[in-house]
Amino acid sequence: MNEEKDMADARTILADYRASIDNIDAALIHMLAERFRCTKAVGVLKATHGLPPADPAREQQQIARLRQLAKDAHLDPDFAEKFLNFVVREVIRHHEQIAATNGVTKTN
Ligand SMILES: O=C(O)C(=O)C[C@]1(C(=O)O)C=C[C@@H](O)C=C1
């Protein structure tokens, strides 16, 4: 019956999209893991030199850059900003933990 064939075709197309979604999600996880590997090293560098965990000026530059990249890629720039802020908040939390255990205190 036609309805059954339509449904079977839709399921095939859905499975195909899902295979791409699974690959993209895997890439996102690997990219995030690599980013956090890098920011953990930044956290150690900052802590051992008495640099503050957060750098609001750098964050503003990143937000402006990512918003433009998002617009060019037809992605909602507000979503891109929220996503960056979410990641950066977690990075700052790691930096603070690293500083609490390995940090030096700047006296000047
Ligand atoms: O570039 C830095 O100084 C970092 O610590 C990395 C990072 C980021 O995750 O992009 C995190 C915290 C800072 O506020 C700014 C940027």
How would you characterize the overall build of this protein?
The protein contains three helices and no strands. With 108 residues, the protein is mainly α. The longest helix is centred in the N-terminal third of the chain and has 47 residues, at 2-48. The protein starts with a helix and ends in a 6-residue tail after the last helix. The mean pLDDT is 95. Prephenic acid is lined by residues 39, 42, 54-55, 58-59, 62, 88, 91-92. Residues 39, 42, 54-55, 58-59, 62, 88, 91-92 line the site of prephenic acid.
Q: Layout of helices and strands, plus pairs?
A:
Layout: H1 2-48, H2 56-72, H3 77-102
Bound molecules: prephenic acid.
Task: Give the key terms.
CM_II_prokaryot; 108 residues; binds prephenic acid; mainly alpha
Give the DSSP E fraction (strand runs of 2 or more residues): under 5%
The low-confidence parts are none
Largest sheet: none
The amount of helix comes to over 70%
- State the total count of DSSP E strands: 0
Between the first and last Cα atoms, what is the distance in angstroms?
80 Å
Bound molecules: prephenic acid
Separate helix tally = 3
Mean pLDDT: 95
Radius of gyration: 21 Å
Overall form: elongated
Given the helix and strand composition, which structural class is it?
Answer: mainly alpha
Succession of helices and strands: HHH
